[in-house]
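Retro notes (design track)

What went well: tokenization of the new backbones is finally stable.
What didn't: we kept losing track of which sequence belonged to which structure.
Fix going forward: every design gets posted as structure first, then sequence, in one message. First example under the new rule, 309 residues:
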């Protein structure tokens, strides 16, 4: 990321890797109920279609949260949190923590990086992250989507049970279900999120609108969150529907998208847009502000450790 002063010690790749994963976990803890509400709203159309019901169970972000708390209890808002934290520690560490290293790789170590280079770096780390973290993402979505049954039972009894059940019933390929739409989504998200944050922050510092501190990080993160939501929502909805689907429900991600378009129209691709924006906007703010502070704190600690006097 931009904004390091020449006199400052540049954060190492290890600091960025660990800092990104930790910051993403903190952001997930804060915003997870919004993410769960988003998933419920995104799959609502197919649930109504399958059950032949005409009533809509969830209405709006806070209506969804209220309904879930009333019918399933407050803990339902954090269904899949363990898998979510596993996902962020492996996923964000790669896609965010290695972004600067990949940018330097494409520019052959030079400091100047154009928009194309940044987009290439974002796409690369986004795709790499999916290869590591896809099973955790599948389990997270399944947990967030599951509703308590009439007899009090659940689809999965725990995180490890979910991994075992999916692998047993759907094979190892089931754990990588939706990998291609997820690679597409994360290439888009990474480009929109990291490149937008990078460029907004660079412009703010270039024209001396703010100093390289919390207000600057907040502004850049908010802008990145909005741009990411607008660009990534259609792919995100398809990804969520496809990963949550049962065996044989959709033949592919493209078939899932076509079925959505046929049955529910264009607006289906922006289902859950408001919780997506609330979640991505707040997630970006918490993550980037925390990430910048962790990088700064760990770099100073490393600098002090190497030169205590």
């Amino acid at each position: 990321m931009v904004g390091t002063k020449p006199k400052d010690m540049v954060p190492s790749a290890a600091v960025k890797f660990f800092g990104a994963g930790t910051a993403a976990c903190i952001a997930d803890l804060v915003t997870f109920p919004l993410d769960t509400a988003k998933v419920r709203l995104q799959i609502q159309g197919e649930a109504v279609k399958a059950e032949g019901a005409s009533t809509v169970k969830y209405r709006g972000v806070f209506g969804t949260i209220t309904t879930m708390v009333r019918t399933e209890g407050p803990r339902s808002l954090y269904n899949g949190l363990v898998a979510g934290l596993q996902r962020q520690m492996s996923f964000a560490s790669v896609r965010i923590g290695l972004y600067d290293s990949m940018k330097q790789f494409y520019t052959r170590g030079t400091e100047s990086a154009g928009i194309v280079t940044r987009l290439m770096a974002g796409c690369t780390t986004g795709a790499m992250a999916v290869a590591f973290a896809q099973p955790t993402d599948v389990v997270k979505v399944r947990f967030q989507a599951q509703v308590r049954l009439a007899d009090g039972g659940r689809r999965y009894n725990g995180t490890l049970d979910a991994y075992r059940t999916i692998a047993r019933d759907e094979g190892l390929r089931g754990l990588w279900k939706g990998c291609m739409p997820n690679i597409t989504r994360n290439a888009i998200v990474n480009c929109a999120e990291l490149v937008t944050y990078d460029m907004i922050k660079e412009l703010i510092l270039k024209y001396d609108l703010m100093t390289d501190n919390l207000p600057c990080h907040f502004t850049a993160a908010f802008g990145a969150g909005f741009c990411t939501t607008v660009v990534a929502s259609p792919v995100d909805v398809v990804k969520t529907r496809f990963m949550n689907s049962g065996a044989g429900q959709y033949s592919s991600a493209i078939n899932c998208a076509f079925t959505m378009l046929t049955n529910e129209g264009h607006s289906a691709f922006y289902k859950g847009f408001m919780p997506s924006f609330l979640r991505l906007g707040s997630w970006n703010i918490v993550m980037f502000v925390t990430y910048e502070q962790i990088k700064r704190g760990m770099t100073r600690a490393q600098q002090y450790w190497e030169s205590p006097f």
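Added context from the reviewer: DSSP finds eleven helices and no strands in the chain.
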